[in-house]
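Help! Submission page says 'invalid entity' but I think these are all valid:
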Amino acid sequence: MPHDSHSKPQTGPALNAAQARALGALQAAGRPLTAYEVLDALREDQPRAAPPTAYRALRRLIDLGLVHRLESLNAYTPCVHEHDAADAGASQATLFAICDDCGNVREITDAPLARRMRQLAEEGAFTPASTIIEMHGRCGGCASEGGA
Amino acid sequence: MPHDSHSKPQTGPALNAAQARALGALQAAGRPLTAYEVLDALREDQPRAAPPTAYRALRRLIDLGLVHRLESLNAYTPCVHEHDAADAGASQATLFAICDDCGNVREITDAPLARRMRQLAEEGAFTPASTIIEMHGRCGGCASEGGA
DNA sequence: GAGACGAATGTTATATTGTAACCGCTGAGC
DNA sequence: GCTCAGCGGTTACAATATAACATTCGTCTC
Ligand SMILES: [Zn+2]
Ligand SMILES: [Zn+2]
Ligand SMILES: [Zn+2]
Ligand SMILES: [Zn+2]
């Protein structure tokens, strides 16, 4: 199979088969997937795929700003924003609200939050390259269901 | 050796030998340690210690608010504040500024940041239980040294 | 077109991080 | 003394991630 690099340069920046499959699996899942769950998805196309294939695809998707890694879960989730790929995390501060009950993840960007983070970094003579903010807790839906 | 639970209830909340050793190692290191590095330290006392010993000690220290886990490094660092143990991360927002050059970690708590995080959670009907904020980048020292 | 080269991907093996499950001691209560 | 619960030790293994090498494929040169 040839690269599909030439097929649609306008839709996205040249995803190969594994990368497209991984992104699709993440978008379809509705919850964060681990690297090995993504690997299972890749194996529907390429039954002999091994861990590095999944990790490479995920790394690429992250570099493109299409996917985020949730450090506190060792899992990956598709981005719902339009990040500036080169700038993921520095000027934007992306907050993930992770429900520990249902697994739902919401991605939030907030300018005041980002401003305050930049200011704190500056006060400490720190030059941020990337930032992760992960809030664990309970989402509204789960709070009203399991009320107690 | 008996538990030292009874020896000094006023200094700290009953650390056993492994816990005290782990905390000492983390404080002496000057940089975050992985669980297996802590395990190596424990083995100076108990040469046959196994991973669960280190993980249990670290879990206990984290529950007591004496140690933090850095999710983005899979590593552990001693707390430099006086956290309310039960409340680690909910009302306080602790930010870690991690230098990717020298490995130095600075722990920062900031009330405006915490306020903004609480507000964002509330707007999204989210009830936070714990929050991690980890900023990667370059500290002032490294920036002036390796200037280029 | 043949051959040399380099980038990307496939493949194997292994490193790192973390936990389940069971065992045995010890101390409290009876 | 006996029982039992809880803690910590121990074994074994699971889950996450990467190093290192082999192969493929496009491209450039001649
Ligand atoms: Zn995003
Ligand atoms: Zn929920
Ligand atoms: Zn702290
Ligand atoms: Zn530094």
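Support: the input was valid. A stray whitespace character was the problem, and the output above is from the cleaned input. The radius of gyration of chain A is 17 Å.
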